[in-house]
Amino acid sequence: MAKEVVNKIKLQIPAGKATPAPPVGTVLGPAGINLQEFCTKYNDATRDKMGDVLPVEISVYEDRSFDFIIKTPPTSFLIKKYAKIKKGAATGAREEVATLTEDQLKEIAEIKLPDLNAYDVEGAMKVVAGTAMNMGVKIPGYTDSDKVYEELVVEEPEEEKVEETTESEETTEEEKIEE
Predict the structure, then answer these.
(1) Which CATH number does the domain housing residue 124 bear?
(2) Predicted model pTM
(3) pLDDT (tens digit, 9 = 90+) per residue, 116-159?
(4) Spatial CB neighbours of 148, under 8 Å, sequence gap ≥ 6
(5) How many Å from the N-terminal Cα to the C-terminal Cα in the chain?
(6) Are 113 and 91 found together in one domain?
(7) What is the C-alpha to C-alpha distance for residues 8 and 129, in angstroms, rounded to an integer?
């Protein structure tokens, strides 16, 4: 018989730097799992990605054992890392704080592809480009407003509005003129 999952916990922890101290300890302590065991396993699994912040999804079972799945780094973290900035723009797309090349965009998209809702690298590139645009990071030739909005907005020709009047309206207008 399979173990029953009692709790699912999602955290973002720097790779190779999990400790039983807060914030990890304060979240996992009430779940009843062995903090030191989790920290050791997490640090061993993420040692090769030192410096990155990695989301982890922890499944806690009824016998207080656990499994965890390490996800890819958040898109915003990767964009900041590749653009070499500390934070995105305060006003979003209105302000430009950095630029990325299309090659860097493709690299980020390839890293994020397993966790994104996209079927191919091109779709993942669009998702990452949207995040970058909202952070104030420009991608020349890719996030130019003309190119992005061409795909999003389909211009429909305006139809001429023809005013239709009924006979009763015509008579009331004629009556008003006669009066």
Answers:
(1) 1.10.10.250
(2) 0.69
(3) 888 888 888 888 888 888 888 888 876 555 454 455 444 555 55
(4) 129, 133, 142
(5) 92
(6) yes
(7) 31
Examine the domain organization and report whether 83 and 65 are in the same domain: no
What's the DSSP call for residue 31?
G
Q: Would residue 164 count as lying in a domain?
A: no
Burial code (b: 16+ CB inside 10 Å, e: under 16) for 60-98 equals beeeeebebeeebbbbbbbbbebbeeeebbeeebeeebb
Quickly tell me which residue has 């998209």 as its tokens.
109
The reply to whether 64 and 124 lie within a common domain is no
Last residue of a domain, one of 70, 91, 110: 70
Kindly tell me the burial class for residue 100, based on how many C-beta atoms sit within 10 Å of its own C-beta (0-12, 13-18, 19 or more).
buried
- Distance (Å, whole) CA 66 – CA 5: 9
Say if residue 58 is in the same domain as residue 105. no
Whether the predicted pLDDT of 37 surpasses 70: yes
Query: Mean per-residue pLDDT for 72-97?
Result: 85
